[in-house]
What we know:
The protein has eight helices and ten strands.
Amino acid sequence: MRQPKPDCNQCDVRCLGPLAALSEDLLEDFNHNKTARTYLPGQIIFYEDNQPFGIFCVEKGAVKLTKYTPDGKSYISRIAKAGDLLGYRAFLTQEPYSATAEVLEEAVLCFITREVFYDAMKQAPNLPLELLSQLGADLRSAENRARDLAYNSVPERLAELLLSLKESFGQVQSDGSVLLDIPLSREEIASMLGTTVETTVRTLTHFRQKQLIASEKKKIRLKDPQALAAYIPGV
């Protein structure tokens, strides 16, 4: 669930994932050379197949990464939260972006140019290792998602998705329930599950009838996370 962040100035890279392990001198260099911008919901940060010119860091808010198929269909590959890097794989491999990044809730992102980042990699041998570790974690997550899409039922996938969102966006309420502090439409949830909107709505309704979840505008409240976990194979 969301944890209190360090007391940082807006878009201070000390608060951001793999960059937080850098020396104070490099952190100060990053903070001096970065550019920060506030994005509103629905704004695009970068498009799939565009070339990267640096790396984006999410300081605040949430950003969805959407991939498009040749026949025009789309699916959300992941949701980036505060502390995540965006576009770093494409930047490191010098390939076009593999997804489109769109803001879900008002976000603050900073941008670090290619020149500044390459200079930091030369001065800090641990930075490439940190990025490789992050890349490995992202790859493991993608492999698990592919496995779940192939073998797990929609209720199992929905339960796992909700509990995953709980770790990143969950806010414990006074009654012990957990509010997922991120606005998601039925279409976005269906995209992440790899199923139709109709099937998603039926499954959400089933969970509500079982008193597992409740809806609050575009947000979901988990009334019984432990019972949700019972849906996940092997848990």
